[in-house]
Amino acid sequence: MIITENVFIMDHPLIKHKITLLRKKSTGTNEFRKLVEEIAMLMGYEALRDLPTNDVETETPIESCMSPEIAGRKLAIVPILRAGLGMVNGILSLVPSAKVGHIGLYRDEKTHEPHEYYCKLPAFIEEREILVLDPMLATGGSAVSAIDFVKQHGGKNIKFMCIIAAPEGLKKLSEAHPDIRIFCGNLDRCLNENAYICPGLGDAGDRIFGTK
Ligand code: PRP
Ligand code: URA
């Protein structure tokens, strides 16, 4: 489903079903992790549908033909730590040769402002398609900062993928970075007074890693 030219909300029933399982507070760490990975894989299929291809000469058992393969430098996947890590293997199962960068950010519990603690991106980032991953887009502060970093390092062709977005975060991200495409599993209702997404799924990092 296309909300604006650059914002895509998933409408596939498999993604919807798995997000429902993810939301349940009875879903334990092991299942939660598997679901995040599966949803990332299904969303990746949608988000990467415009990867550039080149036709190459290909010998089948029957004859030669021209057949497409992915062109250009390898895709760069950039999870926002910690919770974005949970989505990496889902994308790697589609594009095993992708390079992986990392951006470490945490939200201050009181101000909800993001703080950076790590940034390492693949070489030639300016020539790559880049997929920034984080399951949660809440106030949008973390995603905006992460994409600021990617751009400061030369990144140009950027997509952001989240499993759950709040309207507040989606607005902030699309206004701060109108040139990127944003893929969301679901658009939820709002943020609560602690800047958690409602109904959301709680703290994604804690649920993936079993902390708390
Ligand atoms: C969570 C989540 C996002 C961020 C979203 O991370 O994974 O990175 O909050 O919130 P925002 O849109 O308001 O910035 P958190 O800061 O809790 O860190 P963690 O992944 O290490 O738990
Ligand atoms: N981060 C999370 O993990 N969950 C939210 O609801 C908001 C921010």
Question: How are the SSEs placed, and which strands pair?
Answer:
Elements lengths: L1 E3 L2 E3 L3 H11 L5 H19 L5 E7 L4 E7 L5 E6 L3 H8 L6 E2 L1 E6 L6 E7 L8 E5 L2 E2 L3 H12 L4 E9 L1 H10 L4 E7 L2 E2 L5 E2 L5 H6 L3
Parallel strand pairs: 2-12, 5-6, 5-7, 5-9, 9-11, 10-11, 11-12
Antiparallel strand pairs: 1-2, 3-4, 7-8, 13-14
Helix pairs in contact: 1-2, 2-3
Keyphrases for this structure?
212 residues, single chain, binds 1-O-pyrophosphono-5-O-phosphono-alpha-D-ribofuranose, 31% helix, two-stranded antiparallel sheet, 10-stranded mixed beta sheet, Rossmann fold, 32% strand, alpha/beta, binds uracil
Question: Could you explain the architecture of this structure?
Answer:
With 212 residues, the chain is an alpha/beta fold. It has a single domain, classed as Rossmann fold, CATH 3.40.50.2020. Helix content is 31%, strand content 32%. Strands 1, 2, 5, 6, 7, 8, 9, 10, 11 and 12 form a 10-stranded mixed β-sheet that branches. It is globular, with a radius of gyration of 17 Å. The model has no long low-confidence stretch (mean pLDDT 96). The structure holds 1-O-pyrophosphono-5-O-phosphono-alpha-D-ribofuranose (PRP) and uracil (URA). 1-O-pyrophosphono-5-O-phosphono-alpha-D-ribofuranose (PRP) binds next to strand 5, strand 7, strand 10, helix 4 and helix 6. The site of uracil has 8 residues, from helix 6.
